[in-house]
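Action item from last meeting closed. Structure (596 res):
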């Protein structure tokens, strides 16, 4: 039986200078701001279908002000928005055109595909909504484009007007999760709750289903789909027994996180069913060891903390690479998260109901405030009617200011060579947008590998190849079908999700020699990847003398683990390849020197 995965609808909208001027008035700044806003809107197209990632959109307009091509990054490790827009426009229409980007390119360190596409297409000018928030990428693409003779204008720096400010704000909002994460070093966190008109999230008895309308609950499913994970407290598990699924017919499913100090949780709970999506329980060190073993037997991951508090937990999930977290917890945990400064935005669904009750719980517990002047104000507040309910949303912490422009690490090193961007002895890598992110299996580097019959097969990434080879050679039509579905997955993320899901559901379809062969499968794919791409080979060789660690705290085979307890086989293989490549280089140099 085939797996069903849902994808966002194709882009059909096309803007023209005439339609933009009629909607927004005349003037070049207004027109250009509209193109940048369009790029920001495009960049959000994949939300809910893939795990949160930096959002990139690109709009190409010819000198006459007509849009000739556009695109957006679908997922981590897929075709850049700039490449899609150039391909949509075609070679002739790109010459002399302007490209409008919501954010400076830079999804994968060491990969210049996006910049090269614009340069080679004949783009003469690029308008950028904002520089990249991550320091190791900030300003690099702008500088690279300008070095190729392309004029680059950055909103707020080179272009300024009221329309420009609004467009710049759109760019900030669509990548708020990335901006907050870069500034605060915790994932972007949203607190969501539904309450009655008199401020209650449940009756005095604790009964809470349903406060909000069906339409509001559908919006909550959308919010979940835009998140890496959903956080609840132990009390929510005990009283509501939630499933915390996205329920949008496919696409991205966020992780479920339960925070509980005592681990006083029921043995039977919907969250212990991990057939569709995983659950992580975070608790105080030493809490109910026997119950921890029980959860582990169910496949639920348990993470212990010396002192359990929301900030430590969020810093941990920051290290795991999470960008966005949705909190659907009770008032006590919400108050603690707000007090510790990890909640950035609030979504409050207010239902036109009154339930009363002196002991009925409210959405936020004790914050220690005694005067109204101490109340926390939301900024950028929005009001929206959703069915009979009112949705009030706003930022609890303002979006961090990206100005003045802070130099990238490369720029700083050029000014002061004693400043080195990375720890020289240990280099960590994980997400593709992090430093050395191109070492990840999810990086957008296709490979062509032999299929054992003398032919070669193309794979979109190392992750596609690795996941599919769990089922290669199995004498079963269903296994062969899964191989093709994984190979055709639109992103490395989806290939990984498919491969792991099939492995959980149909362990009988996994090739019997997989445990003994998986390292060899990974080695072959990595060797091809780092042999065929010169800039990746150079990057790998540049790490000579450093230990490479895949910084996954939960994958204890391929990753290094949370406290170095992982086997780090991915890092080991890369170091082995580095040694082999250095040996080949040394042998080649010796041959050159010794030859007459």
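Sequence:
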């Amino acid at each position: 039986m085939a797996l069903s995965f849902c994808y966002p609808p194709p882009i059909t909208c096309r803007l023209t200078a005439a339609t933009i001027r009629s909607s927004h008035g005349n003037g070049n700044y207004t027109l250009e701001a509209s193109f940048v806003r369009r790029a920001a809107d495009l960049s959000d197209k994949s939300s809910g279908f893939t795990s949160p990632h930096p959002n990139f959109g690109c709009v190409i307009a010819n000198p006459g002000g007509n849009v000739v091509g556009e695109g957006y990054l679908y997922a981590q490790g897929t075709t850049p928005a700039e490449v899609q827009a150039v391909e949509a426009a075609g070679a002739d229409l790109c010459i002399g055109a302007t490209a409008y980007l919501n954010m400076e390119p830079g999804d994968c360190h060491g990969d210049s595909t996006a910049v090269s596409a614009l340069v080679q297409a004949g783009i003469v000018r690029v308008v950028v909504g904002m520089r990249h928030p991550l320091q190791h990428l900030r300003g690099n693409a702008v500088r690279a484009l300008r070095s190729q003779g392309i004029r680059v204008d950055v909103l707020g720096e080179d272009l300024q007007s009221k329309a420009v400010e609004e467009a710049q704000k759109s760019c900030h909002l669509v990548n708020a999760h990335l901006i907050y994460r870069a500034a605060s070093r915790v994932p972007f966190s949203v607190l969501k709750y539904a309450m009655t008109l008199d401020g209650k999230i449940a009756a005095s008895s604790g009964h809470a289903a349903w406060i909000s309308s069906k339409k509001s609950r559908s919006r909550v499913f959308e919010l979940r789909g835009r998140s890496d994970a959903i956080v609840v407290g132990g009390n929510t598990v005990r009283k509501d027994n939630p499933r915390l699924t996205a329920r949008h017919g496919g696409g991205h499913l966020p992780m479920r996180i339960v925070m509980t100090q005592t681990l006083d949780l029921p043995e039977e709970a919907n969250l212990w069913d991990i057939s569709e999506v995983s659950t992580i329980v975070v608790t105080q060190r030493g809490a109910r060891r026997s119950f921890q073993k029980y959860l582990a037997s169910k496949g639920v991951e348990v993470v212990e903390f010396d002192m359990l508090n929301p900030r430590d937990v969020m810093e941990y999930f920051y290290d795991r690479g999470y960008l966005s977290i949705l909190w659907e917890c009770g008032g006590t945990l919400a108050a603690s998260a707000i007090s510790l400064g990890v909640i950035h935005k609030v979504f409050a669904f207010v239902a036109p109901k009154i339930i009363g009750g002196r002991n009925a719980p409210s959405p936020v517990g004790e914050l220690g405030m005694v005067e109204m002047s101490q109340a926390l104000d939301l900024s950028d507040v929005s009001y929206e009617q959703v069915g009979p309910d009112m949705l009030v949303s706003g930022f609890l912490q303002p979006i961090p200011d990206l100005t003045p422009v802070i130099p990238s690490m490369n720029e700083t090193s050029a000014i002061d060579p004693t400043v080195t961007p990375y720890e020289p002895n240990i280099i960590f890598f994980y997400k593709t947008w992090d430093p050395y992110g191109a070492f990840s299996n999810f990086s957008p580097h296709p490979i062509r590998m032999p299929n054992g019959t003398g032919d070669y097969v193309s794979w979109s990434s190392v992750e596609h190849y690795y996941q599919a080879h769990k089922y290669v050679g199995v004498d079963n039509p269903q296994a062969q079908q899964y191989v093709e579905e994984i190979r055709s997955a639109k992103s490395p993320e989806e290939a990984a999700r498919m491969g792991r899901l099939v492995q959980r559901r149909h362990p009988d379809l996994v090739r019997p020699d997989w445990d003994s062969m998986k390292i060899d499968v990974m080695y072959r794919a990595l060797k091809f990847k780092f042999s065929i791409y010169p800039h990746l080979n150079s990057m790998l060789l540049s790490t000579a003398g450093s230990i490479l660690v895949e910084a996954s705290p939960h994958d204890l085979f391929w990753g290094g683990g949370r406290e170095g307890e992982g086997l780090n086989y991915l890092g080991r293989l890369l170091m082995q390849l580095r040694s082999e490549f250095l040996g080949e280089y040394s042998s080649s140099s010796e041959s050159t020197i010794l030859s007459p």
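Note appended to the action item: The longest helix spans residues 569-594.
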